[in-house]
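Researcher: Can you fold this with iron/sulfur cluster in place?
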Amino acid sequence: MDPLEPRDRLERIGGIVRRMGVDVVSSCSVDGETRARFHGSIRDASSRLDHAIVLGVQLSSEVLGTIEGAPNWTYYHHYRTVNFALDQAALVAAGECRRLGGRAFPVPASQVMDWDRLLGHLSHRELGARAGVGWRGRNNLLVHPVHGSQVRYATVLTDLPLPSPGIELPAGAGCGDCRACVGACPAGAIAMDPLAFDLDRCTAQVRRFSRSEKLNVLICGICVRACRGGASAAALGGAA
Ligand code: SF4
Ligand code: SF4
């Protein structure tokens, strides 16, 4: 393995992917409890990869601004483009992990593995929260203190030691009194308590959108458009 300290290693990988347009880079450890929630298809393959690199690309506020009551083809294209950029960045980050003497598993940004609950290989939100990138918001998404939920994520699992968390979340970060997403959701899926989020209502709504908007994909974007980081963004003055 390389002689780098964990933080220097993260900075080296981060420097490479930031040049590819990645806006958020952090890392965290992966414990057995977290791994137990991974999709079964990757649990064994990742059993010795005990760290995660979290990569985030910000969505365009301008594209999100085109969402008026329902997702549209413009958002769909942007969503796919950002996912593709994330998958490319994860591939490059995984390659750098290997060059540093480690093993690495680039986890897709958005590949549905459980079609009933619309879950992927693992929860990028959960690992992002462990990595200090943000918190679980009322909308059931990861909320970055400056960019809100307007960031999409991918993860690279690796056996290289990395800082955990890679970022310290600012003191007081959280939804606070914000309820911007609560009234915005057409399905009434969002409650003040993030643990009361109604996943069934949300998934039923995105399936309805898929049919009504003829998108043939399960997206929404309404609560993403609404979320600019709650109390924390105001406290930080919108700093990047
Ligand atoms: S994705 Fe859409 S349906 Fe689901 S919680 Fe957000 S606004 Fe509601
Ligand atoms: S819109 Fe406000 S309440 Fe909803 S998740 Fe974002 S910060 Fe939290």
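Model: Folded with iron/sulfur cluster in place. The chain has one domain: 6-234.
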